Amino acid sequence: MASIGPFSFPSSGYDAVIFDCDGTLVDSMPAHFEAWCEALALYGAGGVFKEDVFFAMGGRPTLDIVVELNDEYNLKLDPTAVAMAKREAFLKRLNTVTLIEEVAAFAESLRGKVPMAIATGGSRMVIEKTLQVVGISDWFEEVVTADDVAEGKPAPDIFLRAAKLMGVAPTKCLAVEDAPAGILAAQRAGMQVIGVPSPLVSC
């Protein structure tokens, strides 16, 4: 398991908890960054996605990120093709992902006590495989992905949908997030937000 160091979570003041997945609950960001490097290099754009930009864009849907990279670097990448290549490159690395110890322990402590959901900018297929690999698929009442909403993070849609599916008012939900876009999305949904530090990435 990866660790994020000393960190505490509130023990009360919420009726449900919504977790981001990548970089929050699961230490998958190194694998995602390597997958981006591989996919972009495949399409002649190797080296354009710097680590600090990668983290700044964390939580956003892959297609949105490719569109932004096109705008930023005057590229003509096909968002769908790059997204598919990135997904395949990540799936090859799926065996390297682990739980983030402190966040997973918090989630496990809540099982059977309050409803829990995943709200992620990833695609459903990739997130379901990720949850299966780390053995926590059955911990959550709902899993809401970028495939389920019109607008991904930093729009609040994913968090609002998760709250609605659990039957809990957004203001009664605690969101656990690591990325700026996700934190903003949860705040826009009216939720209490805990920002957790991500484990470091190297590529």
From TrEMBL:
Alphabetized GO MF terms: sugar-phosphatase activity
SUPFAM superfamilies assigned to the protein according to its UniProt record, in alphabetical order: HAD-like (SSF56784)
Q: Which domain of life is it from?
A: Bacteria
Which InterPro entries does the record associate with it? HAD-like_sf (IPR036412), HAD-like_SPP (IPR051806), HAD-SF_hydro_IA (IPR006439), HAD_sf (IPR023214), PGP-like_dom2 (IPR023198)
Q: Which PANTHER family match?
A: FRUCTOSE-1-PHOSPHATE PHOSPHATASE, GLYCEROL-1-PHOSPHATE PHOSPHOHYDROLASE 1-RELATED
**Protein name per the record:** HAD family phosphatase
